Amino acid sequence: MAEPIIVAKRIHKTYRTGEVEVHALRGVDLEIRAGEMVAIMGPSGCGKTTLINCLSGLDQIDSGEALIEGTALHKMKDKVRTTYRAQRMGFVFQTYNLLPVISAVENVEMPMLVSGVRPKDARRRALDALGQVGLADRAHHRPAELSGGQRQRVTIARALVNNPAIVWADEPTGNLDSQTADDVLALMQRLNREQGQTFVIVTHDAKIGELCDRVVRMRDGEIVDSGNGDWGLVTGDREAEAPPDAESPIPNHQSPVTIP
Ligand code: ADP
Ligand code: MG
Asked: For residues 43 and 205, is the Cβ–Cβ distance under 8 A?
């Protein structure tokens, strides 16, 4: 069974704004294996965004440990972390916007240019990625000239173009109509299955939860359900540890993906 690609150990994070303190993460433990597609669900304000920001190194943790591919991002120097993120991670965040003054293909090139890919290769791969998300004919349009769904697909192309190990998505379908949301979701699922990328998707949408390998549930800064059932840990082999007559606790569990 694959080693966990993401490991969180007793992570705490408190935001201080003036006199006000919010203890946003209260000792979070979590393990996610390479190739898993995991949904993180829970009420608004429970710490979902904080968790993926902390795990992906966009935000600092106060204590505990966050390991990605065995490495503690919060201990890296800023520049090393930025390059690591561009090479190994993709982000589909509503707040992680496209740059408005450059074209779709230039937006998609960005993470490759940051990680040192030659401009000519970056352009070719960016055009390929836009083709994969069905936007070949929109490559030279600016974000303002695209619909919400098309912009979100550009974001996904940008997140996936560098063949990252992990894709973080925060409410990736939140601003989309239901048809476009379905398309975007199908695309992410296809890429997870075909390319074996690990997806961590924060969502309110139960439909997304059903499509994922498992659903991690949070409440008040804690994980209240790891989605692994209550008999075993994610580090073990969940099939092997399941009692023989247990119903599968993992809805719509997909066959294992092949990691190229
Ligand atoms: P969710 O994504 O589950 O809706 P968040 O992780 O965004 O929740 O927020 C968790 C808690 O931390 C909330 O109470 C929120 O108000 C607070 N919080 C989030 N970001 C900040 C910030 N930058 N400064 C202060 N408080 C914050
Ligand atoms: Mg959020």
From this structure: no
pLDDT tens for 117-151 read 999 999 999 999 999 888 999 999 999 999 888 89
**In the chain, where are the structural domains located?**
4-225
CA of 117 to the centre of ligand 2 (A): 32
Q: Which amino acid is at 186?
A: A
Looking at the CA of 95, name the nearest ligand: 2
**Torsion sign across C-alpha atoms 167, 101, 58, 224:** negative
- Reported as a single tens digit per residue, the pLDDT across 240-252 is 444 444 444 444 4
Contact 22 CB / ligand 1 (< 6 Å): yes
Interval between CA 1 and ligand 2 midpoint (Å): 31
Which CATH code of 2.170.270.10, 3.30.565.10, 3.40.50.300, 1.10.10.60 fits the domain covering 4-225?
3.40.50.300
Determine which residue's CA is closest to atom 24 belonging to ligand 1: 15
Q: From the CA of 46, give the closest atom in ligand 1.
A: 3
Do 214 and 38 meet the contact criterion of CB atoms below 8 Å apart?
yes
Count of C-beta atoms within a 10 Å radius of residue 218: 22
CA distance 223 to 109: 36
